[in-house]
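Per your request, structure below.
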């Protein structure tokens, strides 16, 4: 198997941003240092510990709301809004679908997680309960981030330090504590880890569960299926699809057995108009009205377009695109054609840009746009409270357009980076057709 490029095996040697940052701890790794002697678990453990510090910075960023509450418009002006305290309903529900429970607006498994934490929250005054729930949620999210970091390092076990793209990303500070999206991200990362170890049934179950926690991991499941079909791994393809179907069916049956409607959140999405971050909201700001039914059709077309592009890339004879590249490109297509791109969508792409081996320069450019948007969207959301203080609609439309371009650029840089990996592979010893598809920085597919 050919050696991975230097910037992937030892990032401080080949990535200028990492090299400069490493001066804080003594500079880049030495010329004669032994690379790869420590197991990937060492990098996973160290990076997961650092990730907990980054999540703690996210708690600090939301300090105003922790002290004063999450009521609007204060939470908007201070950019500390979070969905977590909103789960603290007046009474503990018997099921996630009781009263105004989370099952009406959240996918099945995320609704269950939200409901369980609500039961664990001690009773008290409104603000005290919200603080307790937020604290419990922050602990759970920190653990989910750690799981994601370790799983990403395990997938890229020959280049485990790429998991730093998850652990040290600036978007963790702003987006991680907004909702429980990290639940779906962690399940997705574990599914990729299982697939990389050729546990296809387990991979299917985990990816299916991820899809029932958040919808976006369905894109990754499609990418896994495309790669398995391309590489003539039909038996493993059947296992991964069967595992995913099992997880979905069990989740739906569990919800129905508790008297809930597991499709409620999807029905709510069908009736939803253009939301924050969507290009269709930019059109609406420009006085172009698009009905909810048309937006639903556009979103479905986006999924179909993503599938077509995924098939095209998977069958490309010149570039050996793997699961991370296919997933990121398809996910970006789904995002930019969807009804909304929430601020926490930044979390969805972190494991994928790590496994694509993206340069930190590109990561930080995208993250800078994302953090700027994070501040701007709350200022725009406050328009109904104080239009003079809020971000003007044209400025928000411009900021949203820049953000959309940043996501497209992220996918483009991921595909362009494949050339470097292919060139490094070409310089190595001859490999079998199956080994030629191995990712240096991604899933061994």
């Amino acid at each position: 198997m050919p050696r991975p490029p230097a910037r992937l095996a030892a990032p401080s040697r080949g990535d200028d941003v990492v090299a400069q940052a490493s001066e804080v701890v003594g500079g880049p790794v030495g010329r004669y240092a032994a690379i790869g002697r420590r197991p990937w678990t060492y990098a996973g453990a160290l990076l997961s510990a650092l990730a907990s510090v980054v999540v703690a910075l996210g708690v600090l960023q939301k300090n105003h709301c922790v002290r004063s509450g999450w009521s609007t418009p204060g939470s908007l002006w201070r950019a500390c809004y979070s969905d977590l305290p909103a789960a603290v309903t007046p009474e503990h529900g018997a099921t996630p679908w009781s009263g105004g429970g989370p099952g009406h607006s959240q996918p099945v498994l995320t609704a269950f997680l939200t409901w369980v934490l609500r039961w664990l929250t001690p009773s008290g005054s409104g603000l005290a309960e919200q603080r307790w729930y937020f604290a419990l949620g922050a602990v759970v999210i920190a653990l989910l981030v750690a799981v994601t970091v370790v799983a990403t390092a395990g997938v890229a076990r020959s280049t485990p330090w790429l998991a730093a793209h998850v652990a040290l990303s600036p978007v963790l500070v702003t987006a991680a504590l907004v909702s429980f999206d990290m639940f779906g991200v962690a399940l997705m990362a574990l599914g990729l880890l299982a697939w990389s170890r050729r546990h296809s049934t387990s991979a299917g179950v985990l990816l299916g569960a991820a899809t029932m926690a958040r919808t976006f991991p369905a894109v990754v499941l499609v990418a896994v299926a495309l790669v398995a079909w391309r590489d003539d791994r039909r038996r493993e393809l059947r296992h991964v699809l069967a595992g995913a179907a099992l997880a979905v069916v069990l989740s739906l049956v569990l919800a129905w057995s508790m008297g809930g409607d597991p499709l409620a959140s999807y029905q709510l999405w069908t009736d939803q108009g253009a939301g924050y971050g969507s290009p269709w909201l930019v059109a609406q700001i420009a006085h172009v009205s698009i009905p909810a039914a048309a937006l639903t059709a556009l979103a479905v077309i986006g999924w179909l377009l993503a599938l077509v592009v995924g098939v095209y890339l998977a069958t490309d004879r010149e570039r050996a695109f793997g699961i991370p590249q296919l997933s990121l490109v398809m996910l970006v297509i789904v995002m930019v054609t969807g009804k909304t791109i929430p601020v926490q969508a930044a979390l969805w792409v972190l494991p994928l840009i790590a496994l694509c081996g993206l340069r930190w320069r590109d990561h930080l450019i995208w993250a800078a746009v994302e953090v700027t948007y994070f501040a701007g969207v709350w200022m725009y959301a406050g328009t109904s409270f104080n239009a003079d203080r809020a971000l003007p609609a044209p400025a928000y439309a411009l900021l949203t357009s820049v953000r959309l371009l940043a996501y497209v650029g992220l996918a483009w840089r991921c595909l362009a980076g494949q050339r470097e990996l292919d060139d490094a592979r070409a310089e190595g010893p001859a490999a079998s057709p199956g080994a030629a598809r191995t990712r240096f920085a991604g899933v061994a597919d």
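The two ends are 14 Å apart (CA to CA).

Regards,
D.
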